[in-house]
């Protein structure tokens, strides 16, 4: 019949089913592939971590090598993989296990009986030699061919061509190269271990074989300081020195690391602190603990590689305002070898709160740089509070200074520290000083303040005694506000110089005021602050990093000596 309906064809349903199936495949297949790849990646990571944990090498992952690199096992060119930050081996991920078994890493101590100190052979590894290195035999450049070629000794850093390598070189003794006077040889530690078993402690006899110029260096680096360069520096120092000499203070506290000094001859050790002024203070506190334990003979001299934001102490000692990799690590070690020993005054800051019937124990701090109350302490307090909330945002030295600038500009408008002269009484060596209308007081031990400003000498024709860090005197100045601080830093104004003293006493009579000691700020209520001399620290001064201010100050000092 014409009115009868015909059944719908099955072709439309079949087409719809195909469409749904293809849609599901197009959605689920990428998801499955992604899941499978992530599973394989996690398995590889677990396998790699297992090798890292059990290995004697200091393996580190990298997504991109900084120079053309070839695997030490398969000799293929690689862009990513793993490298040992002790011996410098570089491998592809697939060859990691083979490399770990085939190639030994640096030995921090010799196995078995100690060999003679002058009989340690070279430890050669093949390929990936440093750029611009030269063969010790033919004096031609090494590593110039685009393949795995040439050899490098992981102790003395000498390089040699494949064709120049002879049996005599393989068996030749290693003299530890340019930095032999800084390296603690593995054989020395083995001999020390044997002497301790025999209950002997005359290490000087053993060290005499290494020469009178031997001043072993201990590296104490803070991997979290400043721009987070510490982790990379640790690896570079391990390659050039014995890995046992290199410590990350976030993992090994300075007081434990410095016990290595007790295995060295008296007054021979040097320490390089890689970090900000706070890290330097932490290390110097550990040195004071060594004195309390009766280990004065093992006290090291301390050099600084500045990684922090302000770095005023390192600037005072000639090590510059900040390290950003502009000079190679090898040059840093050369600077340490050339540095001269000096003394640094350290001061005790005692804060006694008013009230509470004097039942509270006074707070004590150790000051190396400066103490302040007023606008610069307020800026440090605001900066510290925000850095504690989000530390990852404050890893740039430039960004940190920008934040300081922001809070300084804010205080110019608010003036939270005004009328300081009405809230504080100041005494220098027991004599009360009348203060003008100030907003801040700064007590200086070193020449620099505020990230590179010579505060006491200032500018102009006025003559003032030069600020020294070893004369037992403190310099006390005042500032009229945050804007005045900014003018001083750009040499448009001078501070209000109050005087010099051996003892400084401040009495905060009322209200809360921001205070800081060496960049560590806090808010303080009514109290009495007393600053007295505590001790001296043995530091290393490098004269090669003098700024224009340093040169002018040195010439002024020489003129004063001539007139005397």
Automatic annotation (TrEMBL):
User: Which residue ranges traverse the bilayer?
Assistant: 20-39
Q: Where in the cell is it found?
A: Cytoplasm; Membrane
An example Gene Ontology biological process: phospholipase C-activating G protein-coupled receptor signaling pathway
Give its E.C. classification number.
2.7.1.107
Q: Which residues form the Phorbol-ester/DAG-type domain?
A: 56-105, 121-174
Q: How does it sit in the membrane?
A: Single-pass membrane protein
Q: May I have one GO cellular component term?
A: membrane
Enumerate the SMART domains for this protein. Answer: C1, DAGKa, DAGKc
Ordered alphabetically, the record's keywords are:
ATP-binding, Cytoplasm, Kinase, Lipid metabolism, Membrane, Metal-binding, Nucleotide-binding, Repeat, Transferase, Transmembrane, Transmembrane helix, Zinc, Zinc-finger
Q: Describe the reaction catalysed, as an equation.
A: 1-hexadecanoyl-2-(5Z,8Z,11Z,14Z-eicosatetraenoyl)-sn-glycerol + ATP = 1-hexadecanoyl-2-(5Z,8Z,11Z,14Z-eicosatetraenoyl)-sn-glycero-3-phosphate + ADP + H(+); 1-eicosanoyl-2-(5Z,8Z,11Z,14Z)-eicosatetraenoyl-sn-glycerol + ATP = 1-eicosanoyl-2-(5Z,8Z,11Z,14Z)-eicosatetraenoyl-sn-glycero-3-phosphate + ADP + H(+); 1-octadecanoyl-2-(9Z,12Z)-octadecadienoyl-sn-glycerol + ATP = 1-octadecanoyl-2-(9Z,12Z-octadecadienoyl)-sn-glycero-3-phosphate + ADP + H(+); a 1,2-diacyl-sn-glycerol + ATP = a 1,2-diacyl-sn-glycero-3-phosphate + ADP + H(+)
Q: Does the keyword Membrane apply?
A: yes
Pathway listed for it is: Glycerolipid metabolism; Lipid metabolism; glycerolipid metabolism
What family classification does the UniProt entry report for this protein?
Belongs to the eukaryotic diacylglycerol kinase family.
Q: Which PANTHER family does the protein's record reference?
A: DIACYLGLYCEROL KINASE, DIACYLGLYCEROL KINASE EPSILON
- Name used for this protein in its record: Diacylglycerol kinase
Write the lineage as a comma-separated list.
Answer: Eukaryota, Metazoa, Chordata, Craniata, Vertebrata
